[in-house]
Amino acid sequence: MKRKTSKEILAESFHEVAEKKNIDKITVKDITDNCGYSPATFYRQFTDKYALIAWDYTRELEEILSEVDGTIEGLNKALRGVAEFFQERRGYLANLFLHTGGLEAFITCMQDIHYESLKDIVQKGAGNQHIDSITDMYIRLYVLGTAQLSSEWILGRWEATTEDLAKVYQETFPQPLKKYLK
Question: Which residues bind DNA (predicted)?
Fold first, then answer.
């Protein structure tokens, strides 16, 4: 059995506190009191709660994207996993969207993480060679569009099933990026 790391325990504690409190009102003390750690332990792991949010989201997304095996089928499976993850974490993610702003806005964090993840997938498909600026723009455009669409769906601005959301992710994946997948 794998033991949880301090980072994982702090992230779980943050999720628990976020069920009862707006993100912008959560303090490091709230997080550490909830799990029995000291603030010093928190600061040995993270610079602030926003670093915890970014680390936690990256970790969860990487787990889902591990399904991408260089094929279109693998990508489609991962995109379905992303839609399901958004549904499972809808309340928590809505709290992040609504109660973070400025330089710490979660939408910006989400876009950065998705961009780096998709760029890595394309980079691997390109044999780890440099990708040109046009390809980079396709990655950015896809990420910006899907992140905005996802945030509006998470916030309940429109309704769709996770299957339909995944279908849109799959069908809007830029044709020029598909050449990097088998």
Answer: 27-46
